[in-house]
Write a structure and sequence with these properties.
Elements lengths: L2 H20 L4 H9 L3 H15 L3 H13 L3 H14 L4 H11 L13 H10 L4 H24 L3 H33 L3 E4 L3 E5 L8 E6 L3 E6 L5 E5 L5 E5 L3 E3 L1
Antiparallel strand pairs: 1-4, 1-7, 2-3, 4-5, 5-6
Helix pairs in contact: 2-3, 3-4, 4-5, 4-6, 5-6, 8-9
Length: about 250
């Protein structure tokens, strides 16, 4: 084999390797594709990053932006919802979710609820699981400081301050742990879903022969109340309406 043929053979092995190396997905490549309005390519890379690196509120948020730009409302709602599930305090994701929902067909008016329930839910969703965990740890450490102050302070006033602070911080620590637990439970046992089909008929029973109750359209969020059936899900809307949808017409948040 002469030198020219040997060089060509080496190039045949080296170039594909380099091409494969350049094909490794990176967030920078996805961001660049998005900046150049190649939204489908950006979404593909973001999805691959989620598959390889695990769930991320930022990646889900970026995916929502890609699909919103591509006018795929259902997918935009789905990924914004997933971003907020992992980081409910993300105001940008919430704003964009409202923008995406404004493009959906269905207008579901939530049923009224007790003020305390609304306040508690909004408070729990004001921070992520990690933020609540950090707050719980910080409150616990400061509570120990308050207990130490109560036990060892030389003056009565300092003892009272230490005791009062320890009680308040104990309550903060307990609430932060409860909030973190509730959020983690929602992440691990997801009941929210988004209708992905252009239109889906909600049935009275989990059967094609069931009575048609109403029709939902893509992008509408539902809560799963029964997922024991193989092909059907019992769902409830925020206004209280309930029925059965085909599993294939929805996607879990």
């Amino acid at each position: 084999m002469n030198r020219h043929n040997l060089l060509l053979l080496l190039l045949a092995f080296v170039l594909p390797t380099g091409a494969r190396a350049n094909a490794v997905p990176t967030k920078a490549a996805a961001d660049s594709a998005y900046a150049h309005e190649h939204y489908a390519d950006a979404a593909r890379i973001y999805r691959q990053l989620v598959s390889e690196q695990g769930e991320s509120p930022q990646l889900y948020y970026n995916l929502g932006n890609c699909y919103y730009r591509m006018d795929s409302v259902a997918h935009a709602v789905l990924y914004y919802e997933r971003a907020l599930l992992l980081n409910p305090s993300d105001r940008d994701a919430r704003f964009n979710l409202d923008m995406a929902r404004s493009k959906t067909v269905d207008r579901v008016v939530p049923a009224s609820e007790v003020f305390f329930v609304t306040f508690y839910r909004s408070l729990v969703l004001s921070m992520s699981v990690q933020q609540w965990a950090v707050l719980a740890l910080l409150a616990f450490v400061l509570m120990l400081v308050g207990v130490a102050l109560y036990l060892f302070a030389p003056r009565l006033l300092l003892k009272k301050v230490g005791f009062s602070a320890a009680v308040v911080l104990l309550l903060v620590c307990v609430f932060a742990n409860v909030a973190a637990y509730n959020q983690l439970r929602h992440i691990n046992h997801r009941t929210g879903a988004v209708v992905m089909a252009p239109s889906a008929v909600v049935k009275s029973t989990p059967s094609p022969s069931g009575t048609d109750l109403f029709i939902l359209h893509e992008g509408t969020r539902v809560e799963i109340t029964d997922d024991s059936m193989r092909e059907w899900l019992e769902v409830r809307l925020s206004d209280g309406k309930q029925g059965w949808l085909r599993r294939s017409e929805t996607e879990i948040i």
